[in-house]
Predict the structure of DUF4249 domain-containing protein.
Amino acid sequence: MIKNGYINWIIWAMILLAGGCVDPYRPPEITSPASYLVVNGFFNSASGTTTTIQLSRTQNLAETKVPTAETKAIVTIESAHKDVYTLKEGAVGFYTLTGVTPSADETYRLHIKTAKGNDYYSDYVPVIATPPIDSVSWRPDNDGLQISVNSHDPKNNTRYYRWEYDQTWEYNSVYPSVFEIKNNKIVNRPESVYRCWDSENSSTIVLGTTTRLSQDIISQYPLVYMPNSSVRLSVRYSILVRQFALSQTAYNYYDQLAKITQSIGSIFDPQPSQLTGNIRSQTDESDLVLGFFRVGTVESKRIFIDKSQLPPWTPNSGVGTCLVDTLSTGDILREQPGIIDHLEGPLYLTTNEACLDCRIRGGVIKKPDFW
């Protein structure tokens, strides 16, 4: 259950750099043609949901292409009482199961048979229900905004937590613009490019535990911190937080994975061979598998924060200085600047196109459905 982005970090952690003019030590694993299976997903025990398991392959550090999807595999989820549920491959490397709700008192395992005939099995794992998120809170300070999560289990059964989140923010261009240059002519823009939305998913492993507390309470656990200059705080910001309850074994796996992916890679750092999940090859013991299969629910909560709710900060537009100039039609067609507005006759108010078209900064002009 790890994201493909973590894999290069796992391999990167194996590079031991020496100082001065000494060549860096590169273990054979760095350039090895070995490609290990990556399993990302879990059996969702919430009623009416779809379970998705993603299969892909690792690659060595020298590779720059997108990791290869593991396609045409036979993927099944099996109960300890021999019930078998087959997942169907839709998008390449993505296997889904709909309409099956696991029993709370049953245990399940994942079975993968690749197109090459290699078999992989997970351990049997119980169904673990995730307690609801009580709230996602935020607090400004002098330098920025802290976002935290709060939760609790009144039965004191959870103790181990993991979180993921998706951030979405609205931002504007520095100036509105109704004109553009098309086919060497000044024409009206067919749509507004002043208002955009951008998004980013969490890319680090966020874990929490209450094992040292008398009560199973997560209070003000920090998730995201944004400086007050962030463009994310310029108009409106939203974060969707997902919470997962983990077993102690799963927590230890993710904790180990976090240490590998977030370390700088020294001789004392944990190595990939130490990263053991609960999925193993039945065909070849040396064939590593990266991932952890679990069964349970996920709880989520979304909040919105408007600029009007924050201190009078001045977020950075991210486009530098937007110098404004007055140019004639001939100069515009020759220099191809962005056009703010028409003044009179052949004269227009102009600036850098990046100051006018919000899409240049990576966002889209289509408003999200949840906005």
Notes: The first helix runs from residue 5 to 12. The two ends are 29 Å apart (CA to CA). The chain has a mean pLDDT of 88.
